[in-house]
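Q: My labmate handed me this sequence with no annotations at all. I'd like to see what the chain might look like in three dimensions before we decide whether it's worth expressing. Could you predict it?
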Amino acid sequence: MEFNEKTISINLGTKIFGQRIFFFKSIRSTMDYAKRIAERDEPEGTVVIADYQSHGRGRFGRVWKANPGENILMSIILRPKIPLEKFSIFPFLSAVAVAESIEKNIGVKVTTKWPNDLLINGKKFCGILMEASITVEKGDFVILGIGINVNQSEFPRELQDHATSLYLSTGKIYDRAEIVKDILRQFEIEYENLNKDNDFKSVLERWKKRCEMLGKEIKLIQSGKVITGKAVDVDDMGFLLLEDDNSRIVKLSSGDVTVLK
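A: Here is what I predict for the chain of 261 residues:
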């Protein structure tokens, strides 16, 4: 099953997403490359995708490690028509699109974990990263990174209890090009509907229906500080609302979450 620009483009069927694809066998970072070409006015919907990236990253500048030739590593350029203060909706929107696509095509239940993880059986198989650029000179754009563990058969020991792949979840090898195509189709529909209707609440409600951590006791680490309490809700701006041990509601914008019970 070949994985390249041609196999992704064949019968893609989108209007915008993936109409321009930059494919690399190896690259430092799809996010960095997408940002550079977005600054040169590369159009919305352009996809940067790689078979391997040497310096892929997740949140807080962490390294996103993925074996060559097994996974999906892509970044998409967005030029949203919604207010700037609503840009935080995009990780949730893309999570819903990826979850629905994977469930439909792979047949596994996908759950969400705040702020940017997708899980199968409680283990992470997909991470989402958003970086926004807001400048008068270049215009506003968003780079949305999506990393999916597809055919990876093993993980380092320190990740084995927390990470999985589609292969490990089902025992099947998947055509990555077909997965990318369906995600782009699904995401384009969701994105167009959001730009047209500005219905942020329904996106979050769909995301929250998949979020099994809500209502549970969690530990959150933010800038070295540990906060414990109950995950109560996610508000309209994407902030986690946590009821701490003193029964106060704390609003959190980011952090590493561990579900305690």
